[in-house]
Amino acid sequence: MINFERKEHYGLSDLLRIVALLRSEDGCPWDRVQTHASLRRSLLEEAYEAAEAIDREDPALLKEELGDLLLQVVFHADIERQAGDFTMDDVADGSVQQNAGDGNTQGSPFGRFAWPCVFSSPAFNSLPVGKLTSKITLPLTKQDRKSN
């Protein structure tokens, strides 16, 4: 039996630890053999269930479904951590780099920043909301980004 600290409130680091424990030598044999391909359907199902919670305007259900989706994201990142390719921190870093801007938004219609109204010049914020909305038409698909 794996020793896991029980507490009143858990954070992301606890989820990362649980998934690492599940996939460890002392963890669950089923979890250890999962691949991106074998988990693909679960990832999609959890995304659709989160979308359904949004459609229902049910915050409690949305919280639960986002947690299920987050587990899938963490699980996929852990597969890559074990392969030595990237970690969950690398996933978060890539997202921040892409969205807050540091040159990792190649192909973005906004250049360096995914949200120029927040991370760009004050002049951008002087645009009327209608014009601002027309300038922030997100996002290019991965295929669009590859072709730019």
C-alpha termini separation: 51 Å
Taken in chain order, the helices and strands follow as HHHHHHHHH
Assembly status: single chain
**Average pLDDT level:** 82
State the secondary-structure class: mainly alpha
Tally of extended strands? 0
Question: Which spans have pLDDT < 50 for at least 5 consecutive residues?
Answer: none
Strand fraction: under 5%
Walk me through this protein's architecture.
This protein is an all-alpha fold and 148 residues long. Helix content is 64%, strand content 0%. It is built from nine helices and no strands. It has helices spanning 12-22, 29-32, 36-56, 59-83, 88-100, 116-119, 122-125, 129-135, 142-147. Helix 1 (12-22) packs across helix 4 and helix 3 runs antiparallel to helix 4. The chain is globular and about 60 Å long. The mean pLDDT is 82.
Protein topology:
Layout: H1 12-22, H2 29-32, H3 36-56, H4 59-83, H5 88-100, H6 116-119, H7 122-125, H8 129-135, H9 142-147
What can be said about this structure in brief?
With 148 residues, the protein is mainly alpha-helical.
Keywords:
single chain; mainly alpha; 148 residues; globular
